[in-house]
Amino acid sequence: MGEAPAFIADDDVSNGLLLKSKGCETIINMGCNKTFAIGAMGNGSDSSIGVRILDKSTSEWVIPTVFGTKPALSKGHSAIVLDEDRILVIKSNSTSDDCFWFLEVNTAFVREQRARLGTEVVAWSKGVVGEAQIPVVISGPSGVGKGTLIAKLMEEFPMLFGFSVSHTTRAPRDNEQNGFHYHFTERHVMEKDIQDRKFLEFAAVHGNLYGTSVESVEIVTDQGKRCILDIDVQGARSVRASSLEAILVFIRPPSFEQLEKRLRARGTETEEQIQKRLRNAKAEIDQGTSPGLFDHCLINDDLEMCYENLKKLLGLSDGSGKATNLSVPETVHVPLEHTISKIDKKILINCTAPQQEKPANNMFVLDLSSIKGGAPGRTRGLNFYAAGPSLTGTNGFKMAS
Ligand SMILES: Nc1ncnc2c1ncn2[C@@H]1O[C@H](COP(=O)(O)OP(=O)(O)OP(=O)(O)O)[C@@H](O)[C@H]1O
Ligand SMILES: Nc1nc2c(ncn2[C@@H]2O[C@H](COP(=O)(O)O)[C@@H](O)[C@H]2O)c(=O)[nH]1
């Protein structure tokens, strides 16, 4: 691990945006009578960035309950207050998926958890650079062909889509791999994880528990890919009601007889299970085809035609099977020495290069005007671009190794 960074406050930082250093921690004063210390906790045992809170009314330091994936310690980081709810932390020398982190200190999610637990709470949310496209939920009765359609999409566009691997308490089928088709788990483990808020949605389906973990969606988003979820109608309803913005597609069979035929031909369920799935299918088709819940409804009669229609509504095809909408994740690299400052929703990152005689073209902008999401998932929609030559005397602070 690298040596602890020191932080030097610029003289003109007076508006409470960010404050000085304390050893290897950044010290941030928030308006809520609290001071946040962010950095290595000094005990040498934790490999992630820690947080302590000073309650100024009691002068006591508190270790909060931390939600979300914690950022790993890096050689240096800087921090700046975004608003009364969040602090932005920028890690130096990090890859694009590990550079920008939001420490939520008073968002709706944090307030909810604080009220539930009766303790101080903070939550980390990793920033995702680029125009992450909203997840796609594919729903429909068992046997309609959801998995088949998703497999075709993943095969044709492996760089564009990533599958959210669900958790389930049902037993694996012969051809199913743990961690690829599902995370197969025990009911008591899954129930505990649900209690611990690890799931974005979950439902009891055909007698087993199924759920989408926050982490499963994050893994896909971190790869810069568009997340596809294969979930039942109850799950789709939960997603609709959640903070996860998604496009919801219902797949319906051409007829109930065809559905039964497909389920039987698949040969993966016992007669009893097939009967249960068919009984549930009736209610699912009713709910899926009634207005309000789903954005789109496709009939999976001819598989190729249904697949073309799916691609069309996802903006992937002009109808001829040609891809039209491929995107590439951006790369980000913030050096150890930099200053940051904030103008409205834009963060200016001035990468100083003292060894160079002339200032290099090293001013970058992190545009936060289109961000979406937040803890317990990711903060998406960050834009990062070069803004021109370095400026001096900006309202920021310098981080040194
Ligand atoms: N358009 C189609 N015409 C005929 N058979 C199809 C069609 N689409 C899929 N199938 C077949 O139907 C069976 C069920 O499909 P699939 O497993 O993809 O359904 P599913 O909706 O994912 O089911 P579950 O919800 O139970 O996972 C498979 O054997 C598949 O090959
Ligand atoms: N609400 C959720 N439903 C899910 C999830 N993963 C799968 N499913 C749905 O369960 C049924 C049965 O699936 P099978 O693999 O046992 O045939 C099917 O309708 C899936 O869409 C999930 O994470 N959440």
Structure description:
With 401 residues, the protein is of the alpha/beta class. The protein has helices at residues 108-117, 146-156, 187-195, 214-222, 233-241, 256-266, 271-289, 303-313, and strands at residues 6-9, 21-22, 25-30, 34-39, 50-55, 60-62, 65-67, 77-81, 86-91, 100-104, 121-129, 136-139, 161-163, 166-168, 182-184, 199-205, 208-213, 226-230, 247-252, 296-299, 339-343, 346-350, 363-367, 372-373, 379-388, 397-400. The strands form five sheets. Strands 7, 8, 9, 10, 11, 21, 22, 23, 24 and 25 form a ten-stranded mixed β-sheet that branches. It has a five-stranded antiparallel β-sheet with strand order 2-3-4-5-6, with no helix packed on it. The longest helix is centred in the last third of the chain and has 19 residues, at 271-289. The structure holds adenosine-5'-triphosphate and ligand LQESDW3C. Pfam families: Guanylate_kin. This is Guanylate kinase 1. Its EC number is 2.7.4.8. Belongs to the guanylate kinase family.
